Amino acid sequence: MIYHGLKGITCIETAISHIDGQNGKLIYRGYDVKELVQKQTFEETAYLLWYGSLPNSQQLHQLSEQFKSNRKLPTYVKKMIHSLPVNMDMMSVIRTTISSMGNNNMTWKPTIDQAITLTALMPSIIGYRKSVLENKSFDENAAKELNHVEYYLFMLTGAVPPKVHVEALETYMLLTLEHGLNASTFSARVTASTESDMVSSLTSAIGTMKGPLHGGAPMGVISLLDEIAASQSAIKVISEKVMNGERLMGFGHRVYKTKDPRAISLKKVLLQMLGEDQWLDLAIDIEETAISVLNKLKPGRSLYTNVEFYAAAIMKAIDMPPALFTPTFTASRVVGWTAHILEQSENNVLFRPQSRYTGETIKQ
Ligand code: CMC
């Protein structure tokens, strides 16, 4: 029996997260993410994923300070970012830059300190590259006291961000920190299983995340909503697409057979922002129309809203440029990847599946 794409195969045990696709639940280390987004910050949830429990105030203070003190890009890294071709996409820039961080402090065996350093650097890498392309000056010390999500937005705009934007982005990032054994996490664990270092494992994961079948879906939601906004009838656009065999971006999921819990939490944030942007109102209107068309034209397939639908609307609402959608997903998922790399290293078994040979027999 061949399990193409390892579909349906269980090959690791993990205590980091659990996805209950039938009941629409996502659990990080025993906590429902719907609850975590209401009460916890990015830093607190990252601590939970790395250490296995929520931090007390002293532990949180220490982690926040570690984030702040690890934001500085080394001079050679800045020079390298400057020298990369201007037409290189941001995911390739992140992959190349993270790869360049491999040094004597980053050797096997992976540590939580390494995970914190690499996570703290993500906003600096993305923000610095953006500022280079836009020919703006960059001062990574200017936002010393900002928390991780505020700092990320600061790095993109050069200004202290509005609270509502921080809350929206923090909810998105917290909901996408971790999601079981998806393709990029699997990649990270395979590399870690060879006892290669954390930087190499992350480089594998980022390369995997870059592919459109994994990290690149929100752009399709933007196009769908733009098309509907330009037409007279949402129901007509949606029905025609489904009847023509097209996939509605932001709907359906391999694991969730009901509404994706991450979409439900993002929608709550969006409802607080209604009226700020006509786009948001449109997204809310379209969701139910799309679900009912899918239910009618694709009965029994259990097609509901996935995280990408509201992620796209939120990104647009906080003025995140589309080219930074997947990089932003990467800046949050680095926490899940590093948690998995640490877990793999604690109880390591080298990944080495079998393949069936379909080539020619030995030539005489
Ligand atoms: N729009 C229209 N029809 C759909 C859709 C959709 N979004 N998704 C699935 N279907 C139909 C599909 O055409 C097929 O119909 P039929 O039985 O007539 O051939 C049936 O549903 C089953 O499709 P499938 O590809 O076997 O289902 P899957 O569970 O393997 O697909 C999916 C999951 C996410 C690839 C798919 O739902 C899809 O392409 N959605 C649109 C892209 C998207 O929003 N991706 C982001 C997913 S969330 C990412 C994350 O969790 O990180």
Automatic annotation (TrEMBL):
Catalytic activity: oxaloacetate + acetyl-CoA + H2O = citrate + CoA + H(+)
PANTHER family attached to this UniProt entry: CITRATE SYNTHASE (PTHR11739), CITRATE SYNTHASE, PEROXISOMAL (PTHR11739:SF4)
Family stated for the protein in its record: Belongs to the citrate synthase family.
Active site per the UniProt annotation: 253, 308
Pfam families: Citrate_synt
Pathway named in the protein's UniProt entry: Carbohydrate metabolism; tricarboxylic acid cycle
GO cellular component terms attached to this protein's record: cytosol
Keywords, alphabetical: Transferase
Name recorded for this polypeptide: Citrate synthase
UniProt key word Transferase: yes
MF terms in GO: citrate synthase activity
CDD domains according to UniProt: BsCS-I_like
One BP term from GO: carbohydrate metabolic process
Domain of life: Bacteria
